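I am sending you the entry underneath: sequence plus fold tokens. Let me know what the token row says about the fold:
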Amino acid sequence: MASKVFLDANILLDLTLKRDNFEQARRIIRLAVDGDIQAFMTPSVVHIVGHWLSKAYGNAKAKEILLTLLADITVIDLPHEIAVNALHSRITDIEDALQYYTAIHHKSDYFISRDRQLQKQGIPALAVYTPEEFLEEFER
């Protein structure tokens, strides 16, 4: 069975806005398209990415890009009690805490983000990988 991989908003923004880390993001999404991984994000990631895509490309193009992403990335959410647990966690950034605990709740194998602070605040149950670290480990 394919590994379950949670994608933080910064990974999808790297891809869709063709930022500096575009190539790593493209390789990760290619793994999802090819079925080598199961990719996941939350509704708030859709919202964040949609906001920045709308600013960059306009609403119609933003929707088109999001729908293309949703063909290969599944949207997951969290129940009330997990949101409460996330807010009680040691993760200081609220958005990061909610994303991270959603990934844990859905038994993700990997959490990919370029957020170094989140890497330091994660727990052993789910390590936070940079795109480079994930690709290095996954493509062995």
Notes: The first helix runs from residue 9 to 16. Helices lie at 9-16, 22-33, 43-57, 59-70, 80-88, 94-105, 116-121, 131-138.
